[in-house]
Amino acid sequence: MSTDRVTVAERNLDQAIAEAAPAPRLLADDEPLHVGTSLTAVRARSLFEDQVASRSTDAASRRLKARGLSYYTISSAGHEQNAILGAQLRLTDPCFLHYRSGGFMMARSRHAPEVDPVLDTMLSICGSKDDPISQGRHKVWGSHRLWVPPQTSTIASHLPKAVGMAFALGRSRRLHHDPGVPEDSIVMCSFGDASANHATALSGINSARYGLRRGNPMPILFVCEDNGIGISVDTPPRWITETFGGLRYLRFFNGEGHVDDVWDVVEEAIHVCRSRRVPVFLRLSTERLWGHAGSDIEAAYRTPQQIQAVEARDPLIANARRLLAVGAATAAQLREIVDRTRARVDEAGEEAARRGQLATLQAVMEPLAPYDADAIRVSASGAPDAQARAALWGADAPELQTTPVKRTMAAHISAALADEMLRRPELIVFGEDVGRKGGVYYVTAGLQKRFGQVRVFDTQLDETTILGLAQGAGMAGMLPVPEIQYLAYVHNAVDQIRGEAASLQFFSSGQYRNPMVVRIAGLAYQKGFGGHFHNDNSIGGLRDIPGLVIATPSRGDEAARMLRGCIAAAHASGRVVVFLEPIALYHEKDLHEEGDGGWLSDYPMPGDAVLPGEVGVYPAGRDGVGTTTSPPSTPDAADVLLVSYANGLRMSLQAQRVLEREHGIAARVVDVRWISPLPFEAIRREAAGAAAVVVVDECRRTAGGIAEAVVADLAESGYRGRLASVRAADSYVPLGAAANLVLVQTPEIVDGVLRTLDR
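The chain above was modelled as a monomer; its predicted structure follows.
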């Protein structure tokens, strides 16, 4: 779209001010615009100034874009009434914003005079490294001082985490946890009428209602900025009201009319949400001027008459006329506000265009994956109070302390969770069936009984809600450990990790964080149970997420130690971690043959942890006995190095014995443990002493396993031995014995090594 429409809108506003008839009487500054409203003349003029500032930044962005100096033209033009929310909400009310929130940010900044919203906005539009929130990584509305976490909000993907924040605020008191805001704070979340139809938005709104129905305080204000169109698709008239206006457990308000009428409705909606701690839905009537974005050719789907009708409903013109009609301002006052504000914005735009941008890869990626190894190690090394631990475990405490009975992976994970909960009062565990039932595989059995329903609780059956709750709780200072029941179930909600949770520190320059450890039961080898939905070996969608840590334990003792490292990484560095637990190994006892107990292990005492990047090594000739710390820098020589993880490790150890006993081949095995980021340096170090490397990857051949990355790194780093892999087929996992035709089997590993060594 050219800048002509911008100029037309500015001229229309100027003309409306110039042509307005003077009011019979001017209001005093502290007089209300009508009887009963709290919007006084002076507040109305300030509000108008904030709205003009928002409009002017939109105009400046398009003009700078035409000169090649800016990068963002999705404007707030027509949505300026959201400034009313910015004016009325407190700085201690966390706000998750729609991308048309310029008016809101201008008005909210009045609560923090040290913030310059105009310059900050122009710096963001120009992609400047001096932008105080994202430092040039993206144009986002956000501010640490204003309690506005940044998000793009394009498909209402921010609603679930806003609901999660409201849930956390409502539960903090019962947890004796300080979320950093007053007890009567509320959460505001804004979005568009088109986005309101998205499954993510519906999930967020439904979960807020569900939470209230279950007796939880849910102080969230949903604000639907209804402009009647989503890019080029009209929203049916009254659709938002008809869809959300009659829902139980959701108070509905309609904000339209004169600016002071909208002010009153917003005030009441905030009061109900704050005083009653219930979800509130506010429909805010808006217009969309100038098309969806600067590249949008609005004439392709709107007639000239329709465009003119929208311009005639410009809220700035309506507000100016209202202020003039009731005597809240004179034409001269409004003219001065407009001229001064436009000049201020133009000056800020030129200043922002002169500022530098991010110039190095290191600068861009600096906040993506923060990692303080020393702090993480300190966090992981702590142990719960011995007396408290004994009181918690009762008769089981001596058993766990002296470990006379070797245990399975499921038992070790459960014990490690209990110990971490004991030493970290902010840690909460939740998900489908994790409470009373103790999880489908009983990994969380007994935790709710020991720690109560406030810290261990069941959620509704919706992975989007679970991950949104984790984000909100993490931002409120808790340490969430949510469970996703099966790996296949995370795919329908993976954007809550990819687009939201894992990106928060990146787009906020580390000013916001949502630490969490997402436990996911997954992978295959369940001996025919459940088919592909319960034997999902698709990890590509997770490995593709920048900054995400993915841990995959193989043995019970290692699972406990790795879980401690994951929780420490989340606690100390704010990281988002996926702890992918191999279902088939939960209750596995044996390694080589039935009854050998080779896959049972002692419980490692609290404080004993494995940190990201530390791999496990099983030297040749040790018959399944490995190290559980970082490998030595000069590994023993071997004919072949097997690189694997999870179920693949167990099969690799089985193959190791066959190769050594039947073929005289010395095989060393590395358990990578961390499939993102992959421990390339450790793998290279181990490969240096081997004649060949074979990667055993239980996941799909060309769909996101680790084999391609490991082989490529070894080849590019100069490894001179032979390279090969044994991988699962590119197929869903079928039911029954047919699964063995798709998945890697131990004999295949043996054959793969023999072929690689020409034996």
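The longest helix spans residues 41-66.
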